[in-house]
Amino acid sequence: MRDLVRGRTWRGPALASTVLALGLAATGAGALALHSAEKDCADAVLRVRAGATQAAVSAAVARHTTTAQHLAALAGNAPAALDAAGLARLSRSTLPGAYDVRLIAPDAGRLTAVAGRPIDGTASGTWTAPPPEVTAAMDVARDTGQLAVSAPHLLPHDRALTGTRRQLSFVLVVPARSADGAEFRGWVLLSLRAGDFLAEALGSGGHAAVTAALADAGDPAAPVGVAAWNAEIAPAGPETVALPVAFGQRQLTLTVRPGTPLMSETRRHLDTLVLIGGVLFSAALGALVLVLVAARERSATSARRALADRRADADALLLAQSALREREAELAGFSALAADRLRAPLTNVVSYADLLAEESGPRLDPAALGFLDTIGRSTRRMLHVVDELLAYTLASEAPLLLEPVDLARVADEVVAAHVAISPTLPSIDVGPLPVVTADAALLRQLLDHLVGNAVTYVRHGAAARVTIGARQSANGWWRIEVADRGIGIPAEHHRRVFAPFYRTPAAEGYPGTGLGLATCQRIAGLHGGQVGVEPNPGGGSVFWFTVFDGQSDHQSGEHPVFLAHRA
Fold it and tell me: 225 forms bridges with which residues in the sheet?
């Protein structure tokens, strides 16, 4: 009997400890997953910033190399045209970061300056002899017939400078030959101060959110730092991205670091909030289980005493047993509810934030209410991201349930849903649509994504204008089109918008994760079809996808969907 009592005494703490351990494990796993997602998001933001910085530097490199090659062609075909007047059109606005340009001709074993012009407004002077780095580049250019870039060095006129005015430079060297290529007539030399070049390339392109450093990687074991951008601002974190930049025959390395935080303060601490909330919830749940088990034990003890004291009183025993069963039912129901909440810690954060705002809102100050609202909105955005990630993942793994699908009915349902939730009343015209053979749920999801994008990506203050139509293609296929008058997509982004997480620069400021169009592409591929985008005449875009018609036997193994899966 003593062992039985001891076992019952330890049952409550053991069960409470188990519930607490399970809650902490689930909370830790959720917080760890959220932390990993936050890190992936920050890495993606940094890669986007670094890619934009690399593109700006590469574009500036291309502008200078093209200008130098054009001057060399002009000098080779008509040397007299490349005089002071011919160079007068060159300025800091056309060649940002450039120092001067020279035409050098070989004359009886000597180098003679035929023409020259300072570009940055200072007097560039004359050379008694080119620096050895420039001479080496001139030899490479003459031997290869291609543009060559000197190693980073100090221009002769810069050696007396100090402070930020003293900077390393590159010289672009292009051989000038006659039109038939038979006669070598000299070199065109375009000098660039590396610091001015990098500042001009990044200063007008909205790159204030990064710090950048340019290094010459001619010797990979000992790269030479040549210029820096925004180096005076404090770094926002240890993240670094190193990207290559081709510069003639030289290979440069562009190192980019974030100069501002990659995520908002709320998103950076969302995993901590989830962890704290989960720990508190698990502790409360464990304490409640302990109280319920203790109450059950007290009820059982009372029942045993009543049975020992009054064996003839059957009614008292039945009442005690009934009370015990009720408490057991309460404990079982609470345990089921708690397990459900532990499987979704993010949902718990939203629920408790809303509950706290509703119950204690009148007693909280505006700052506290703002924090609660921020927690709720941030967690809902993360839940939306999780939903889209699940949709994207399941789109490639979901079993297809092929059946005849009336696209007109599906389109009406999708349009009604978007009109009901849109803050501005969109104009959506639905033309004649066919019956096709497809998975009804997946096809509705695809059309919902396209209509949702057409309604969302419109110019601020304007109402959406959308047209849904269909065109029959050859061999039993239909092309379904969703045309809009929105912000449009540049032609160079038409193929890239269907990549996961990719968003065009024009989409900045609009909600989205970059997964909707990638999900559309997967759904179309599952059905053996394709998806694409074209410019809409008059503005906007036309998104389309192809799907097989409803006239063939969708159970046949020759259906395009089965053939696609078999391949």
Answer: 215
Convert the pLDDT of each residue in 470-502 to its tens digit. 998 777 889 999 999 888 888 888 888 888 777
Q: Of the candidates 529, 564, 563, 567, which has an alpha carbon nearest to the alpha carbon of residue 548?
A: 529
The answer to whether 378 and 41 have CB atoms below 8 angstroms apart is: no
Q: Write the pLDDT tens digit of every residue in 19-58.
A: 777 777 777 777 777 777 777 777 888 888 888 888 888 8
Interhelix angle 2-77/366-394, nearest 10 degrees = 80
| Cα separation, 334 vs 290, whole angstroms | 12
What would the two tokens of residue 317 be? 């025993």
Residue 335 has a pLDDT of 36
Q: Is 441 helix (H, G, I), strand (E, B) or coil?
A: helix
Residues 327-336: contacts with CB under 8 Å, at least 24 apart: 327/292, 327/295, 327/296, 327/299, 328/296, 330/292, 331/289, 331/292, 331/293, 331/296, 334/288, 334/289, 334/292, 335/19, 335/289
Q: Report the distance separating Cα 149 and Cα 310, nearest Å.
A: 106
Contact 546, 477 (CB under 8 A): yes
Q: What percent of the chain has pLDDT over 90?
A: 8
- Spell out the SS3 assignment of 377-420: HHHHHHHHHHHHHHHHHHCCCCCCCEEEEEHHHHHHHHHHHHHH
Check: CB of residue 470 under 8 Å from CB of residue 479. yes
Q: Which of 72-76, 226-230, 353-357 has the lowest mean pLDDT?
A: 353-357
Contacts of 136 (CB under 8 A, 6+ apart): 150, 151
List the structure tokens of 550.
């409803």
CA–CA separation, 227 and 501 (whole Å): 32
Range with the largest mean pLDDT of 119-133, 247-261, 550-564: 247-261
Measured CA to CA, the distance from residue 80 to residue 176 in angstroms comes to: 13
Q: Cα–Cα distance between 122 and 3 in angstroms, integer?
A: 99
C-alpha–C-alpha distance, residues 422 and 458, integer Å: 12
Question: Which of 364, 361, 524 has the alpha carbon at shortest distance from 450?
Answer: 524
